Amino acid sequence: QLVQSGGGLVQPGGSLRLSCAASGFTLDYHDIGWFRQAPGKEREGVSCISSSGRTTNYADSVKGRFTISKDNAKNTVYLQMNNLKPEDTAIYYCASIPQPCTANLDDYDYWGQGTQVTVSS
Questions:
Q1: pLDDT beyond 90 at 50
Q2: Nearest of 97, 100, 99 to residue 111 by alpha carbon
Q3: Mean pLDDT across the stretch 23-46?
C-alpha cells in the first residue's frame, strides 16, 4: 500500500511537502506518479519519477515550482511544492506503476489515500 502524509492549508507563495511511503513492496521496480483532483475536475497528472530516480517529469503547470524526489532507503517519494498558487488547490494522490508512468489511471496498481492541499489567503 501507499501511505501519504503532508498537505494542509498554505498561503499563496508558500511551500508544502508531500510524502508517499510504500509498504509491502519495494519502489525499486515501480515508477511513482503524483496526481491531483480539484472539485469538479478530472484527476490530472502532476509529476512522475522513475524507479531508478534518475528520470522525472512534470506537468507544464507545475514545472519550475514542484520537485519530485525519491529516497530508496526509506521506500518513499516526495513532492516538494514551492510558490504555491490558488489553482494548485486539490486533493493530491500518489500512485505506483510497474512500468514507466502513463496517463492512463487504470495502469497504476496502488494508490495513496489522498491528501488535501489548499492554497488560500
A1: yes
A2: 97
A3: 94
Residue with C-alpha cell 531508478?
52
What φ, ψ does residue 100 adopt, rounded to 5°?
A: -60, 145
Contact 49, 77 (CB under 8 A): yes
| Cell numbers describing residue 103 | 496517463
Task: Report the phi/psi class of residue 58: left, alpha or beta, with left for phi > 0 and alpha for psi in -120 to 50.
Answer: beta
Radius of gyration of the chain (CA): 13
Helix, strand counts (H, E) of the chain:
0, 11
Measure the CA–CA gap between 11 and 119, rounded to whole angstroms.
5
Under the banding of pLDDT at 50, 70 and 90, the label for residue 57 is very high
As a whole number, mean pLDDT of residues 72-78 equals: 94
Query: CA 121, CA 117: separation in Å to the nearest integer?
Result: 13
Torsion of CA 88, 62, 5, 68, to 10 degrees: 180
Q: Give the per-residue pLDDT at 18.
A: 98
Decide: 79 and 67 in contact? Cβ < 8 Å.
Answer: yes
